[in-house]
Amino acid sequence: MNNLMAVAEVIKKAQRPLLCGHVMPDGDSLGSVLALGLGLQRLGKEVTLVSSDPVPDLYHFLPGVETVIVGEVPEGDYDLLVAVDFSVPDRLGSALHAFVKNGLPVAVIDHHVNDHPFGHYNYVRTEAAATGEIIMDLLDLLQIDLNLDLAINLYTAIVTDTGSFRYENTTSETHAKTARLLECGVPVSRLSNYIFGEQPLVLLRLLEAALGTLEVSDCGQIAWMSISREMVQSAGASGQHIEGLINYPRKIKGVELAIVFRELDEQRVKVSFRSKYQVDVNLLAKKFGGGGHVRASGCTVEGPLEQARELVLKEVKEFFREGSDGRHP
Ligand code: 5GP
Ligand code: MN
Ligand code: MN
């Protein structure tokens, strides 16, 4: 594994870097890409920011977000791809695959558990609560000073991946780094409203439908919801409104493991896992070809929805029963 200094050197040498976060972008991948992108522009580089999937409306306040090119990669003489907040090629998105296949050098900066990141240069720090924390260290190495635009992006990266500093991944370093961002003038209360406080009505309509599918296991420790395409459509919602819904089964007192099944199309169902104290959901997602973190992970399994739910729940219950090796309640 290369160290951060080595990745910083590679980035320093690049003149026309292509920066991307993962498919279905979240606050950490967008905030990290934008902070690094805005920073590298200040070094005089010709930076191109791309996202395979659209930027959720929620993140339209991020400084620089209007420069993110969605869905395709413009023709260009790029000399480096910087992959941010993921380290497996299947989270690249189809437009970027071709560049990697054609031999564009790749630098990976990530905090997900992965022993085999796909870059030529890799920096993976699983102790970082958000990739945004690593980007702050990288900016320091590149001698790029923080400013308010960078700080808003980095704060968003950190506050979203830590669930407002409430998740287990939050450390003293997370707070120390956040303090530096607040010194740049980040408007905390305003951002909290944008990110957590306000929700479009369609999201509440979708929540209403999703709660109608809520089920809890006999043991009271596993809770799940299922979201069909029909439900999303009738609520007038879209994929971007689904991300936070898993917090509802997770909130139930006594529940250790929360799951959301989301129908992507006839063949594919996206499964999200969250645990509170004991279950290693990264291991669980890995059983289905996915991954993530110990307390938050995901995977995509074969549909239709009911079949996916049965398959996953059967495996989950076995995983729970296996019991006493410290991974389970
Ligand atoms: P979410 O449930 O919010 O989509 O994802 C939770 C966490 O698991 C995120 O950190 C995300 O990066 C990771 N994750 C979600 N889906 C996948 C997947 O299909 N493969 C891998 N490797 N990680 C995933
Ligand atoms: Mn992410
Ligand atoms: Mn992240």
SSE diagram, text form:
Elements: H1 4-13, E1 17-20, H2 27-42, E2 48-51, E3 69-70, E4 80-84, H3 94-101, E5 106-110, E6 121-124, H4 131-141, H5 148-161, H6 172-183, H7 188-197, H8 201-211, E7 215-216, E8 222-227, H9 229-234, H10 247-251, E9 257-263, E10 268-275, H11 281-286, E11 291-292, E12 296-302, H12 305-322
Parallel strand pairs: 1-2, 1-4, 2-3, 4-5, 5-6, 8-9
Antiparallel strand pairs: 7-8, 9-10, 10-12, 11-12
Helix pairs in contact: 2-4, 2-5, 4-5, 5-6
The structure holds guanosine-5'-monophosphate (5GP) and manganese (II) ion (MN) (2 copies).
One manganese (II) ion (MN) binds at residues 28, 85, 111, 130-131, 161.
Commentary on this structure:
- This protein has 329 residues and is an alpha/beta fold.
- It has two domains: 4-197, inorganic pyrophosphatase (n-terminal core) (Alpha-Beta Complex), CATH 3.90.1640; 201-322, Diaminopimelate Epimerase, Chain A, domain 1, CATH 3.10.310.
- The protein is 39% helix and 17% strand.
- It has a six-stranded parallel sheet.
- Helix 2 (27-42) runs parallel beside helix 4 (131-141) and helix 4 packs antiparallel against helix 5.
- The longest helix has 18 residues, at 305-322.
- One manganese (II) ion binds next to helix 2.
